[in-house]
Amino acid sequence: MLPLYLLNSAKSQPILVELKNGETLNGLLTNCDSWMNLTLSEVIQTSPNAEVFTKIPEIYIRGSHIKYLRLPEQTMDYAKEQNMINMEQRNKNQNRRGGRPNNNSGNFNRRRNDNNRGGNYNNRRGNSSNYHQSHGAGDS
Amino acid sequence: MESKETARDGNQNNRDHKDQRRRNNGTKQEGPKREAILDLNKYKDTQIKVEFIGGRQIVGVLKGFDQLMNLVLESVEETLRDPEDPNVLTKDTRSLGRVVVRGPSLLTISPLDGSEVIDNPFVAAEVQA
Amino acid sequence: MSAPNSRSISDGSSNAEDLYLEAYAFTTAAALVGSVDRKIFLLLRDGRNLFGVLRTFDQFANLVLQDTTERIYLDAEGSKSLEKPARFGETYRGVFMVRGENVVMMGAVDIDHEDEHLEVLQNIPFEAAEAELKAIQRERVQAEKQKTKSLLSRGLINDFTKSDLY
Predict the structure, then answer these.
(1) Please, what are the domains in chain C?
(2) Which regions are flagged for Low complexity bias (chain A) (predicted)?
(3) Do A58 and B111 touch (CB under 8 A)?
(4) Closest CB from B33, B89, B121 relative to A53
(5) What gap in Å lies between CA C35 and CA C108, rounded to an integer?
């Protein structure tokens, strides 16, 4: 679940946005796009020095000037739930169409074997894996 | 032999991709939007407040706009800032008349109608709690 | 030494997968995979210290932290510097989504020892710490402004930006 998808599932929930200039905006997230541009409704805008407070019915914010967002606690669970529902749906669709089980993992293995055949990377991997293994042995 | 096999693989991959696409369309996995999320039509001929990257702030009547969010505003008043601290706005304004706003340099857009300066609402909330 | 290792990689066991990933010196945001679901520390450009569990990230290193706390370290009372922490204040902040470009530094937190350094510090209310920090930062900005002016009069540039307070 990518951050922007998480943001998407926080729609219509109250969030706090802090901009790079220190300004903060509290409001309900109405929409967001893949650049993290946002529209909020029922907003309270706080100036960078926290001295001026403005009530605004609606505001559009440039994503590139956001410092961070604070999301409601439930967002993570809600997003997880949504994800699960989507996964189930997908599985159902796949089964209905007579999906090919194990197909993906097969591909994955094949690709990795190809990689094994490659010279340069393989060498490097061999060396550093040794490093990891010796450390692992020390840990246990 | 080898080449035949890779060709078959290619087909399979192709089919996989198609399936993936169909699946994604079929289920509602909500990703972030790629199109405009703000309909500027509803602000046409009304006063809006525009903040710029860098801190300038203007109020004007929206006359036109395009996909890149370039705006045309009329009867624009810029709110001047404290020369000592560019974060602090003063009460002074200056008239700019008709202005073309470049989309890329714009930070926020909000309607002026319904906006008002209020007392610190967060202190009140804390006291109540 | 390498023989059993390469065998386990072709086995495709989960352990081998870990090795496979970690063996590459990632230079992109993908290097963060190893920190997912671990407690991490974040320093932002504005000087904020955040501690939380990294839940997800993307190619821009935008980060999502859960159960985040923000902590402010301050020197002994009356000191105007931020060199030798003697006091701290912290507050719970919940879920944070930080845009990657605002991060200065990030690191994993050793949860067995994370509180040890706090034992010698005095715990003060977060609001008080915040107010004091703001005052110190304001003073710093003011001082830098003076410096900029006098350097400029000599044809020199002061390399200071207000947004960099870390």
Answers:
(1) 16-125 (2.30.30.100)
(2) 116-130
(3) yes
(4) B121
(5) 7
